Amino acid sequence: MRYIIICLFIFLIFFSCKKTITNNPPTIPLLDGPSEGVTDVPFTFSALSTDAEGEQISYQFDWGDGELSAWSEFLPSGTRIRQAKIWKEEGSYLIRVRAKDKQGAISDWSEAISVKIFKNRLKWRFKLEENEEISGVAIGPDGTIYFGEGTGGKYFYALNPDGTLKWQYRYEHQDFTSGCNSLIGADGTIYFWAGYWCGDGYLYALNPDGTLKWKYETYGYVLPPALGSDGTIYFRSDDQLYALNPDGTLKWKRFMRGGDAFSIGADGTIYLPAGETLYALQDTIVKWAFKVDEGWIITEPAIGPDGTIYFGSYADHLYALNPDGTLKWKIKKWLSSPPVVGKDGTVYFCAYGPDWKGVIYAINPDGQEKWQYELTEVVSSLAISEDGLIYFGTGSLYALNENGSLVWKQIFPDIATGGCTAIDREGTIYTIYYNTLSAFAGSAPLANSSWPKFRHDLRNTGNVVAKK
């Protein structure tokens, strides 16, 4: 009996001294992922958790639309997991994730990430080879989309409105580059320059079927040409302003040192930047000249409904001139994009803000600021649609309301979206990013304003009276 009591005593001592082992759940996962996206495109989120006992971990995502993902395979503690999600409906969603170990201990849900999903408006993409880039876009009367290859390119392209290739024209030499926006005449003739980076090349005129109409040899780099109301083609090269007849013969030329793209007013006046001076020319005659306070002119002139001329200078100013060349007003802004003008006369542009970030400004015709919209990057071009939306790209495509609020945004994980270059008659928005042309469904055609986009209209005439 005494022996039994001693054994029981030893047994109780042994088990009372044995350490109780508990299983803790994994740590609450750290969740990371995008804050914006579009429907029908996968967006990837990642999560990371650790387990105190070093056990393997499985993850489950709550996608905010009533769907929980299946528990993932078990991964070593501290291993990041990535899962993609496709949303079918636009809206705002709260994304969470939790973790469990192999013994079934489950962590609390992570802090939620809010994701805004916009309707996917992408219609199609046309992509060149990796080492090529697209140089400018023009749209013909029948909706054909025209553009050239940039550095080291070989071809000038024509696409159908559905993004399929219509034809391509091979440059004179394989190492030519198309250095400026193409221009479309009223009769459908396509004008563009291609040449060497040193400047020598040709201004080409192609028929709508892609055959050569004529070419004019140049001895300097050509900035975007402009089209007079009588069909005259104007362009700058080798410190000369040229005027060609529609058949490619020289009408006249005059010395005019280099500068930015130029514009044509309602009465045929050519507004031409040259260094620090904006010239107003009637054919070869200088009507007036306006010199900026310091720096030089860095944008094409945009023309308002009352004939006001707007342009930016390198000395951080937006200028507004009266049609007679006198100063109307100026404001201190360093423009990164040419100004555009809305139907009510509001002037829109992007300028450098703090830390070199971009800011979209809306300025009343009297020079007073209406609103601003802050970005993380600067914008090189804007365009306005007939319903008043302002479009621009910074890697994503934005659509702002006339009051400066965001209407929608397009962001894709596989490729960035560049500047808005055109809005066609069906409301399709075209953007360029290096070697890719993207087409997005918009809500209205290009605005019937005095200057709704760079080079004024779909044909890139640079002429305020040309049809949109």
Automatic annotation (TrEMBL):
Domain PKD, first and last residues per copy: 42-111
Annotated SUPFAM superfamilies: PKD domain (SSF49299), Quinoprotein alcohol dehydrogenase-like (SSF50998)
Name under which the protein is recorded: PKD domain-containing protein
Domain of life: Bacteria
Origin species: candidate division WOR-3 bacterium
Ranges where the Pyrrolo-quinoline quinone repeat domain occurs: 123-253, 295-410
Coiled coil: none
